[in-house]
Design goal:
single chain, alpha+beta, Arc Repressor Mutant, subunit A, Aminopeptidase, 9 helices, 36% helix, 24% strand, globular, binds coenzyme A
């Protein structure tokens, strides 16, 4: 009995885990949090979680909204609790670990880039190695927990510039770690891991991390065939880009993180 958590604590922890497990991604640029959950829980308990900075309850003119957001602290706490209670996360989180690239994974990333892009679009091995060395904190990888190998990644560099130019692909000296914005340089998922939402998850985690760091905007360029994919991920189409990378026509897409 002494080791048992009290009733209030049990409700709090179980509710937080339920909110986390049933969370949905949200692209609301006017809110600083990105994961929402419907709320049908005890109001006093919700208030306590909000006081502890674990959730955020948006309000409208008539009172509280019917959903809430998990804060970064809230999702971390929920993850700890799931481990403590021995419960599984969403399948994609169970299958992949998302984290910064390690120096010894640079060659693997260069190989993946060659598999994912035709020679005129792919970034060279040398440039990938430079990025891993200079900006590993902006090089997010998905590691297959079973094999320990990379399944995909998203990389970029920070800058204070507000539009994309091809030099970001080639000149690592343009990287300004304190830059307001991030220019994304490559989203890759190995063919055998495609079609299960991994690219979406990598992108979403990347956006959340950069939002937490206080970045303002994210930019990328893509071919016409991918505009819809990025629009679904919450990006806005800026139209035809200045880029002539690989001799093709590119679209510039932007995502607003912090106003
Ligand atoms: C594009 C790529 C990253 C997608 O990876 P993935 O893990 O299969 O993508 P997801 O399963 O997360 O799919 C996310 C969404 O994008 C859409 N999508 C996926 N691949 C797409 C493609 N090649 N073209 C257009 N839309 C695509 C999916 O239908 C899905 O939409 P939904 O949310 O409505 O289901 C992967 O196919 C790849 O590495 N391709 C080669 C490199 C490349 O083109 N990178 C993007 C450069 S701009």
């Amino acid at each position: 009995m002494e080791n048992k958590k009290n009733y209030e604590k049990a409700i709090e922890e179980l509710s937080l885990m339920l909110m986390y497990l049933t969370r949905e991604q949200d692209n609301n640029e006017f809110c600083k949090y990105r994961e929402l959950s419907w709320k049908g829980y005890d109001f006093q308990m919700l208030d306590r979680l909000e006081q502890g900075d674990l959730i955020f309850q948006p309000k409208n003119r008539r009172g509280y909204d019917k959903y809430l957001y998990l804060t970064e602290q809230g999702r971390e706490r929920a993850q700890e609790l799931l481990a403590e209670y021995g419960l599984c996360d969403k399948e994609i989180n169970e299958q992949f670990e998302l984290r910064n690239i390690l120096p010894e994974e640079a060659e693997q990333a260069a190989e993946i880039e060659k598999i994912c892009f035709p020679p005129n679009e792919a970034c060279s091995r040398e440039k990938i190695l430079e990025r891993v060395e200079a900006a590993p904190e902006l090089f997010l990888v998905a590691v297959d927990r079973k094999t320990g190998k990379l399944a995909g990644f998203l990389n970029g560099i920070a800058t204070d510039e507000y539009s994309f130019r091809d030099e970001f692909f080639t000149d690592i000296k343009l990287y300004n770690p304190k830059g307001n914005n991030v220019m994304l340089l490559g989203l890759d998922v190995l063919p055998e891991y495609r079609g299960q939402g991994l690219a979406k998850e990598i992108m979403f985690q990347y956006l959340r991390r950069e939002q937490e760091k206080g970045r303002k905007m994210i930019f990328l360029t893509c071919l016409a065939a991918k505009v819809k994919m990025y629009t679904k991920m919450g990006y806005y189409n800026n139209g035809i880009a200045a880029s002539t990378w690989g001799g093709e026509q590119w679209y510039e897409m932007r995502y607003r993180l912090n106003l």
